[in-house]
């Protein structure tokens, strides 16, 4: 960023004074909102939840509408924290502001070292689920005061309020003893109707386990169901009918129900 010379600082004072005289002459001072005059910098970002790995935009606004040059800002620094997020782009919607991305942050400044209004759009890429806090700081022109604002964005779908499994089976650590080849209704609740797209890809699935707790060679099998997943609003219950294999007689398996929120719920079985 270029150094600010004393001549430019004098120019900024004259610019602010000229602006104040023009506003007063047009009567615009009387229309100015007092709250806006104190809001030196603002940032807005979607609250979420947003998908992991999908970029989103945070918007920084620096009104620079104060009448005193000491209250104007000619720089802005944006940083992110949480959810493995990084800033991948930043640009100012003003031809006399510029931005760069040093060390995962966004630094923007006025090319003319003048306190003019600006809107800055920052593109953020989250890598994991969690919360992204985006913070902007904007020092005043003399550097004696730093204005700041922040916004939080939730990344990843919040976990469903899972309860279950319901009769006729029980969740791990219970062991359900059933006849191999039987169709087993797998019932659970998510605290309301979440639609029928609540299963993760390839879910439910089952894997062979040792009945005595010893190790076995796990062979994971995607379950099948003639009716698929259904939801009963009267009982607030999801049901998936799991068709077991007669060849599983004398073995044990773990059923894994993976949901789209990233959680996995299990039930253990011993087949007769």
Domain tally: 2
Q: Main sheet?
A: 5 strands, antiparallel
Rg result: 30 Å
CATH topology tier name of the largest domain? Immunoglobulin-like
Write down the overall geometry. rod-shaped
Number of helices: 2
- The largest sheet has its strands arranged as 5-6-3-8-9
Distance between the termini: 75 Å
**Which class do the helix and strand fractions yield?**
mainly beta
Number of strands: 18
What order do the SSEs take from the amino end to the carboxyl end, as H and E?
Answer: HHEEEEEEEEEEEEEEEEEE
**Mind telling me the CATH class of the largest domain?**
Mainly Beta
Architecture per CATH nomenclature, i.e. the level-2 architecture of the largest domain: Sandwich
Beta-strand proportion: 35-45%
Unreliable stretches: 1-38, 214-222
Let me know the average pLDDT: 82
Task: Kindly state the percentage of residues in helix.
Answer: under 10%
Structural commentary:
By secondary structure, the chain is mainly β. 10% of the residues lie in helices and 40% in strands.
Walk me through the topology.
Layout: H1 6-26, H2 34-38, E1 42-44, E2 56-62, E3 75-81, E4 86-92, E5 97-100, E6 106-110, E7 118-125, E8 130-139, E9 146-155, E10 163-166, E11 175-178, E12 183-189, E13 205-209, E14 221-222, E15 229-232, E16 237-243, E17 252-258, E18 264-271
Parallel strand pairs: 11-18
Antiparallel strand pairs: 1-2, 2-7, 3-6, 3-8, 4-7, 5-6, 8-9, 10-12, 12-16, 13-14, 13-17, 15-16, 17-18
């Amino acid at each position: 960023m270029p150094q600010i010379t004393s001549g430019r600082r004098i120019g900024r004072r004259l610019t602010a004074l000229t602006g104040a005289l023009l506003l007063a002459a047009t009567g615009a001072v009387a229309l100015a909102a007092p709250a806006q005059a104190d809001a030196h910098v603002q940032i807005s970002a979607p609250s979420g939840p947003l998908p992991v790995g999908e970029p989103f935009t945070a918007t920084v606004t620096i009104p620079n509408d104060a009448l005193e040059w000491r209250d104007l800002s000619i720089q802005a620094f944006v940083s992110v924290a949480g959810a493995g997020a990084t800033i991948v782009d930043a640009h100012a919607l003003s031809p006399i502001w510029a931005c760069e991305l040093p060390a995962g942050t966004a630094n923007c400044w006025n090319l003319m070292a003048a306190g003019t209004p600006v809107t800055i759009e920052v593109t953020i890429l989250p890598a994991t689920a969690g919360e992204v806090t985006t913070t902007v700081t904007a020092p005043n022109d003399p550097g004696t005061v730093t204005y700041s604002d922040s916004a939080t964005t939730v990344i990843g779908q919040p976990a469903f309020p899972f309860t279950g499994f319901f009769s006729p089976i029980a969740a791990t650590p219970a062991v359900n003893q059933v006849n191999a080849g039987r169709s087993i209704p797998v019932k659970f609740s998510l605290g309301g109707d979440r639609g029928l797209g609540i299963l993760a890809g390839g879910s439910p699935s089952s894997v062979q386990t040792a009945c005595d707790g010893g190790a076995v060679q796990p062979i994971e099998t995607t379950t099948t169901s003639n009716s698929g997943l259904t939801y009963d609003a009267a009982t607030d219950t999801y049901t998936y009918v799991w068709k077991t294999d007669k060849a599983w007689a004398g073995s044990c398996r773990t059923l894994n129900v993976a949901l789209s929120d990233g959680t996995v719920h299990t039930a253990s079985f011993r087949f007769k």
